[in-house]
Amino acid sequence: MIIGNDRLKVIDNIRRLAKEGDLNSKVEIGDPVLSAKEQKAITDRYLRKRGSMPFRLKALIARSIANSVTEKINCDTETVGAENAESIEGGAIITSNHFSPLENTVIRKYALSRGKNSLCVVSNVTNFAMKGIIGFLMNYGDTVPLSENPRYMCRDFCRILSEKLENNEYVLIYPEQEMWFNYRKIRPLKRGAYFYAAKLGVPVISCFVEMRDLPEKDTEEFYKVKYVLHVLGVIYPDKEKNARENSFIMRDTDFSLKKAAYERIYGKELDYTFEPSDIAGWITNAKGEED
Q1: Which of 122, 135, 242, 258 has the most CB atoms lying inside 10 A of its own CB?
Q2: Residue of 276, 286, 139, 120 whose CA lies nearest to 193
Q3: Model confidence over 233-274: pLDDT tens digits?
Q4: 121 φ, ψ to 5°?
Q5: What predicted TM-score, i.e. pTM, was given to this entire model?
Q6: What are the strands, taking DSSP E only, across 134-278?
């Protein structure tokens, strides 16, 4: 399933940024742009309301919707390597590649299969300004806003993550930073997920989602795509090192796992020269491109 318009313009942005070697910047069109004051207003409102009864009731509704959508989208999604994280009994941070507004449902299905009631997803605060059903799910569907405000990130964000993890939940953080629509390649990883894992003393479950083109069309420009979740392993912080030191080591370990998975799954070495096949499901000849 493909959400949103202007996908060909987004692909042009991906092609351009890949050529420039800028692999973590925003490529989506029309996302909300917020000032620092507006971001603070959203996080303040989130912190103020998250413990209230109306918030909790809406969260239950949003969770039910998210779980139902997860089952519908992932009826044929496969999981490979689940045994690689069977030793995890408590809370953990999950990292995965970020290519769709819906791919978090792949991780959600995995979390539910592990006996979790929900999946906590860390999402950019700008997404909390969205309207309609997507905005409702962003604000109430077990999501935690990621902000540029240092005080919020150091105090409130860390406290919320600690609360979730102590409650044995899984927390999904996308270390690639921005979503690149249906982009198959693993991109450079930012350190944040691993810093918080080390700071809070929890493991990271490394995941990679494979995308397989299906013969059935979703639109005139795209085939439908099947997901395969690869659970690659568990990365533990070194108790002898501080959070900053661990963040580099854990990030590099995770990237190595994801890079190896990409190369094994797609049968090619990772490089960032753009090819039409980098975009899963794209019927390139529909626009006069090469097959």
Answers
A1: 258
A2: 120
A3: 999 999 999 999 999 999 999 999 999 999 999 999 999 999
A4: -120, 125
A5: 0.94
A6: 143-146, 170-173, 204-217, 223-235
